User: Fold this.
Amino acid sequence: MLLLLLWLLPAGLQGATTTHPLQQADEEGPRAEFDRMQHDFGRIDRSRHTAEFRLTNTGTAPLVIVRTETSCHCIALTCPAEPLRPGETRTVTVSYTPDRRTEGTFSQYVRLYTNARTKAPVMLFLRGEVVR
Assistant:
């Protein structure tokens, strides 16, 4: 019995070091990485306020922002129209303009859909407090 276990043990260890082609494929292609995922404006007035997020393509193929969504009409978004080459960094600018009735704390978001292999949207969050 002990001899059988000693014979099977190396075979089991051999399978543990096998690489999976599917895992390697997930690492290839475009990949979006931001310097941060949220911005806190703090206490602000009712004028327009802007935050900049640095987007880097850490993947192996060009990254394209294919679609964007905002949580409110009070959010304006400027993002790169041209593809980002691997290793390239560009700025995504998000502006928040509270309407004249807005007062108190707020929390908004932006969704960016890319051609990255994960297909999940990237979400950037904005928060703060509008004061008189």
Observations:
- The helical segments are 2-16, 21-27.
- Residues 2-10, 15-25 have pLDDT under 50 and may be disordered.
- Residues 2-16 form the longest helix (15 residues).
